[in-house]
């Protein structure tokens, strides 16, 4: 614990942040395991996998509308917090955390509007659960940061290293989303094997860089909650990547079995 205290603010006496830390870590980890065993969250390639009768009864919305619904609330909260909730964000670390969250979700909204090409729909309940998860995590990250005010800083300040890692993550994520968008010609809805960038080595490099981006935010924040959320997110995206790799193997005979799911040469 003494070594850990060099890198992380002490946990604040808050039942809310402690509960949210456990909730997101365990919830995301369980969701990652579900992805591997075939109980996938219903969007993108896994929109119509399994539970055919139940799926027919669920409300569907366009993927573009669903993605906006997923990202816009978290973006709006992060961007508005410094202006509407005076005192909630204070100091360079708090401002950097809030700015990083706002940039992360603003980039996603930009991609939804101007980059992504869509092939189908998304279930309304899936969009709602993902949107609520992102919104609550954003609220809790900013609140947990607020609770560190007047606490002694960790002995090792990682916030500026976190900024660099965040920028690497968000840039790599955008680049690979851009490559995915170029796979289809206008009007096409079929799936193809991704090419270029790290797609030659892994199936989901965009997830890899998303994890890197959240690691950057955690290093800026240096709170127990931010590290818990990032760890849970990483476990979930590992599961999602493994499920995606298996989907490609099943769908395309010429898909390379040498490509890993998430991390080149490892996973």
Describe the structure.
With 267 residues, this protein is mostly helical. The chain has one domain. The chain contains eight helices and two strands, in the order ααβααβαααα. It has helices spanning 15-37, 52-57, 63-84, 91-114, 124-146, 159-181, 205-221, 224-251; strands at 60-62, 121-123. It has a two-stranded antiparallel sheet.
Q: How much β-strand is present in the residues?
A: under 5%
Query: How would you write the strand order of the largest sheet?
Result: 1-2
What is the mean pLDDT? 89
Could you give the count of β-strands?
A: 2
Distance between the termini: 30 Å
Order of helices and strands: HHEHHEHHHH
Largest sheet: 2 strands, antiparallel
| Secondary structure category | mainly alpha
Q: Which regions contain 5 or more consecutive residues with pLDDT less than 50?
A: none
- Helical content stands at 55-70%
Q: What count of domains describes the coordinates?
A: 1
Number of helices: 8
Large-scale geometry:
globular
Specify Rg, calculated over alpha carbons: 19 Å
Describe the secondary-structure layout.
Elements (H helix, E strand, L loop, with lengths): L14 H23 L14 H6 L2 E3 H22 L6 H24 L6 E3 H23 L12 H23 L23 H17 L2 H28 L16
Antiparallel strand pairs: 1-2
Helix pairs in contact: 1-8, 3-4, 3-5, 4-5, 4-6, 4-7, 5-8, 6-7, 7-8
Provide key terms for this protein.
267 residues; mainly alpha; two-stranded antiparallel sheet; 8 helices; 62% helix; 2% strand
Provide a concise account of the structure shown:
The protein has 267 residues and is mainly alpha-helical.
